[in-house]
Amino acid sequence: MEKNVPVRFYLDFEKPIAELEAKINELKAMVSEEGGVSITAEIETLQEKVNDLLLDMYSKLTPWQKTQVARHPERPHCLDYINALIDDFTPLAGDRYFGEDAAIVGGVGTFRGRSVMVIGNEKGSDTQSRIKHNFGMANPEGYRKAVRLMEMADKFKLPVITLVDTAGAYPGVAAEERGQAEAIARSTDCCLKLGVPIVSVIIGEGGSGGAVAIATANTILMLEHAIYSVISPEGAASIIWRDSNKKEEAATAMKITAQDLIGLSVIDQIVSEPVGGAHRDPRRAAKTVSDAIAKSLAVFDGMDAQALRQNRYDRFLKIGRGLPGCVIFLSADSLQHCSATQILISMPFRAPEAQLQHIDYARVRTTLAVGLPQSSGINSAKRTTSIIMD
Predict the structure, then answer these.
(1) Which of 134, 219, 217 is nearest to 180 (CA)?
(2) Which of 74, 146, 262, 289 is the most buried (most CB within 10 A)?
(3) Looking at the domain assignment, is residue 5 inside a domain?
């Protein structure tokens, strides 16, 4: 009788791996059926090829491929990490205003012998659970629940651990009517005001304000193949090029990977994943995340509430400081309609020597399409501007 082999989901760029693993499964089935035939050596050879191919492939993933890995349906989600890392977890529900939102889970538990508050986005692992958790997209009551739990943690001096994995806050009409934007803002504000350490881990997708609302932390960790962005690559491509098929170009331009973001000081540490992604060895991935969280929390031992708030304040103020230039993304159509104010906002000048009052914005609008001349006011501030055109 043929042995049941678990069905694995393969991404489009993993086709060579899928073919090799299919051959391995066929050979294993032959061994179980025929018994006497020894093809162990052939199986081991194929497995070595798979391992080498995985190592090579995952060492040079493009930003769009990393986006696909971050969204992998078999990737460990929030509840998987909670079950692996937290002992005696007691879930807490409801925002005490409107109701419960299963997209954000939270509760108290023990992390390596230390009482903590855990909050995270849960996407679900099958159709039923994904519908229950609204695919990880929280409503206002979810963020108000997060605020309630963070305030409880502050009251009882419990460190906060957040696990971020969401495409963004739910954009439904009812959510907007119940104050989605305000709920996100209040949750972000609550993170900043906490008098206890807060460590955030981007475990999959970190989508826009829906992620920032629970990721305004003292330390932000990010898994090697996770993404963190203000908008999805598809959304950015639709806005910039009016063509969602240019999502790969958008993913590259947006700097959404952990490797890009650590250079921008948006995150503090990249947490390595097993070869082939966290979904190939969830237990090992959880152990690595656990070690990283423990080290991050240890840094803040003994710090008082004011010092923790100041640390958080300084951490976010340094984002983007000292960068060599800025990048402006303008389509040909939008370029023609940019006002002087819009151009100014698009150019985050930080050097005091930038003589913004002397820039001829009409001339800038014209020269942007053909490249900036050396004599422009922008170059006098030693800034480089890149334009992505239609």
Answers:
(1) 134
(2) 146
(3) no
